[in-house]
Design goal:
The protein is mainly β. The protein is built from no helices and eleven strands. A hairpin with a 4-residue loop joins strand 5 and strand 6. The protein is globular, with a radius of gyration of 14 Å. The chain starts with a strand and ends with a strand.
Length: 118
């Protein structure tokens, strides 16, 4: 069984920073992609950032230059450093992992709330 556990969400003022972490544990092998999605109230879930096994990254246009994704392969952990936060970054952030050998599967965390407000 695979489990993704996120941490680091919370309330922050505009312009502030937060760092999200997600640890993947259990029977998980050959991680291909690790990333973060978010979903704001009344909106669809959207990709925030992802990092491929080779190290390449993709970011949503709205977070480029402010957010940085990284991963520690030795710990099966992905991080999202969020700087210069804006109220529109308020959402539930979900960790995402794509992994597998013969069969590739997608796994999701339970979500962590990020609220940017003064």
């Amino acid at each position: 069984q695979v489990q993704l556990v996120e941490s680091g969400g919370g309330l922050v003022q505009p312009g502030g920073s937060l760092r999200l972490s997600c640890v993947a544990s259990g029977s998980i092998f050959n991680i291909v992609v690790m990333g973060w999605y978010r979903q704001a109230p009344g909106k669809q879930r959207e990709l925030v950032a992802r990092i491929i096994s080779g190290g390449s990254t993709n970011y949503a246009d709205s977070v480029k230059g402010r957010f940085t994704i990284s991963r520690d392969n030795t710990k099966n952990t992905v991080y999202l450093q969020m700087n210069s936060l804006k109220p529109e970054d308020t959402a539930v952030y979900y960790c995402y992992v794509r992994a597998g050998t013969d069969i590739v599967r997608d796994y999701w965390g339970q979500g962590t709330q990020v609220t940017v407000s003064s």
